[in-house]
Design goal:
Shape: globular
Distance between the termini: 22 Å
Number of helices: 6
Helix content: 10-25%
Number of strands: 11
Largest sheet: 8 strands, mixed
Strand content: 15-25%
Radius of gyration: 19 Å
Strand order of the largest sheet: 2-1-3-6-4-5-7-11
Order of helices and strands: EHEHHHEEHEEHEEEEE
């Protein structure tokens, strides 16, 4: 039987994603909202300096600093690299009072709606995501390219939990509807963990629809790295919608359409995400799959 003793709710991993920051401040002011009888809950603003200057990060994207080799490398310095080591120690990655689950709160400028990104493909995490989708059928389950515990994401510091990603919302602003969506998901996750501790395991829908990230597509660029085209208006805002070979993809500076040249139907996500311009990502290609969750594996 799984026993969850400590759960961390994290916001402000990216300093200009204010939804998570605001909710952490709320939970710290009203801790009874996130307290549950069967485990301890702690709330953390991950990157306070980035929050203070309303930037995604100061030196380096904090959510790419948690690779286990980077955490062990004492020669790897800089604000976010050092901060990642401090957070890992606080959340018990060094073996002292580790958190059993992490709920990492994010927002996106892409039209992703409410998306759950499980920490790993373990049946417990997939059943949690499935449960949230059962509660609200508009919730989508996204499995990242890096979706195991040795990924560089903050969420990889614990075996259980997920990232909660809600959008679209511009960076550095708040939206009451998105705040409410995110908060309701957090509370539902905490309730689920509490039920697990009490021996109640809610069965997932069968099969479960997931969106498995496969690779990324960059914008067309010139030799200097400048954009040569933007997202086509027919593609803008169409996250999780099917894109077939030959569909409009980009629009170049002369107004010429660039078409998707792949040979299979895909379901793009994170389309035109503002934070991904610097990462060379115009969108993430996902495959839409139906899976069955057993007690020990995905079938």
């Amino acid at each position: 039987m799984i026993k969850i003793k400590r759960v961390a709710i994290v916001g402000g991993t990216h300093g200009n994603e204010w939804t998570g920051v605001y909710l952490i401040q709320k939970f710290q002011q009203y801790p009874e909202l996130v307290q549950r009888s069967s485990f301890e809950t702690l709330s953390l603003i991950a990157n306070p300096q980035a929050v203070a200057v309303n930037r995604r990060y100061v030196d380096r994207d904090l959510n790419r600093c948690f690779d286990r080799h980077d955490l062990a490398n004492q020669e790897l310095v800089g604000y976010e690299n050092n901060l990642a080591k401090e957070i890992a120690a606080r959340l018990g990655a060094n073996g002292t009072e580790p958190v059993d689950a992490i709920i990492d709160l994010h927002s996106t400028t892409a039209n992703m709606g409410a998306t759950i990104i499980p920490i790993s493909r373990s049946p417990v995490n997939l059943r949690l995501a499935s449960h949230l989708s059962d509660l609200n059928p508009t919730v989508r389950i996204y499995l990242g390219i890096h979706s195991e515990q040795d990924s560089p994401m903050l969420r990889s510091l614990a075996p259980l939990g997920c990232t909660v990603e809600v959008g679209p919302i511009a960076q550095g602003i708040l939206n009451a509807h998105i705040l409410a969506q995110t908060e309701s998901l957090v509370l539902a996750i905490l309730d689920y963990f509490d039920q697990l501790n009490q021996g109640v395991s809610l069965p997932p829908s069968s099969p479960v629809t997931i969106y498995q990230a496969m690779q990324t597509i960059d914008y067309p660029r010139n030799g200097r790295g400048d954009l040569k085209a933007i997202i086509h208006p027919d593609r803008q805002g169409q996250d999780y919608q099917c894109m077939k070979p030959g569909a409009p993809l980009f629009l170049d500076l002369q107004g010429k359409t660039i078409y998707y040249a792949g040979d299979s139907t895909i379901f793009p996500a994170f389309i035109n995400e503002a934070a991904y311009y610097e990462k060379g990502i115009a969108m993430v290609i996902t495959e839409k799959r139906a899976i069955t969750i057993s007690s020990s594996e995905i079938i």
